Amino acid sequence: MSSPDLTFRRLLACLIVVAVVLLGVVALALRNEGRAVAAADWVNHTHALRAEAAGILSSLREAEGALRTYLLTGDPRDQADYRAAFSDLAEHVDVAKALARPAPADASQIARLEERLVKRADLARELIRVRQGGAPEELRALLAADAGGEAVREIGRRVDRFREEQAQLLTERDRAAYLQAQTTRWTVLCALVLDLLLLAGAAWLIRDDLQARRRAAAALRLANEQLESRVRERTAELSAANTALKAQSLEDRWARLALEHQLHYNHLIIDAVSELAIVVTKNLNISRINPAVGHLSGLAAAALVDRPLAALVKLAGAAASDDLLARALKEGRDLREQSAVLTDSAGRHHSLVLNFFPLRDSDKVVGGVVTLRLPPAPAA
Amino acid sequence: MPAPKHILIVDDEAVILDLLAEVLTLAGHRVSQAATVAAARKVLADGRPDLVITDLQLEQSDGLALLAEVKAAHPDLPTLLLTGVLFDEETVEARLRDKVSAYLPKTTPLKFIVAEVARLLG
User: pTM (2 decimals)?
Assistant: First the structure.
């Protein structure tokens, strides 16, 4: 996927090239328009020059004819005609000179033509002078010298050649103008095609960018939905875990309270009984006593715990009281109503009745409980 | 959503009362607490609860006596004896069946207590 900046740069480049091509076409059109105007001016100018050249020739022939007529008739009206004809000729020459002035080659040809026309005019003036002087022999001699009109034909040939040259230039200019028009047409067409291609490329870039943006938006939307879904799932998991943790915490607190309550309750029961209660380990060492033991023995629990039971209590009349208790403990059986003697902290002996109960944890005997009470008072 | 059920808990230990109230409130019930029989009687006088949970060993009286009063006033009101005194099955059948709707030792896990409460509330 192209980045927005890259797409923008590509679009900008396309549009710049399109604008440059359009500017080129506009410049070409303006230049061609100027050339066309100049060509039209040149063509008009050339046609005018050709027309003036033709006018020169026709005016010359007309003047020559009017001159001959006057020379024959001597009529003043014919004289006016040839003067008018020469006047037209001079006017055509002046116009042709003016038209040919920008082109030195044309001006040179017109100048050479004018030289010949001037000679014809000089000859005409000489003939008229002789005609008006009344010298027919001299007039005939002059006319005979000009017999055949070779000079006039030479002028005619020069005028025709000049006009043909101008016509040839017109033809070349037409061909060049046609080639120029063709070149311009193809240039404009190529520029148009190039612009269309560039615009199509820009359109494709825009379409591609829009598609990429749509794909990116869809991907972003999908990612957001997935993220929200994961967040919801995770939140639900955390909430469930929190609920479970809280429930477990409450459960733990409840279990601890129940256990403390139960222990406290059991201690209260044991401590409340008036009989002496001693808990012993499997080795017959004292692990716990109730307050009645402390009262009778004068010894605190701290002085008795972990001491042998035999240091406090012994079975009366039995040489090996430890063996009897040890056997009962080992065999896991009770020992009931045995006479025993407790020695207190002052060394006094107290006769008591002993009961022994093994402590069972599941199927194992892990210790025992010794209870002691005062023997019943003898009957009075 | 149904209205929460009203449960009266009677126990002389504040920590037990608070913890049970918290658990049963989380389970969606409305809970009244009473640390004494007198306080329990006051709650009962204000309105019939949907369930009465009581300890056995109380300061002024005992739980079974209180439940006898409750049963006299509301014969169909379910009751739960929740106590640290452990009774075996035989004792429960022989001595408690007619006096309480259910018996649970305090060593019972909370989730089973909540389940039993839900069962008693129907």
Answer: 0.55
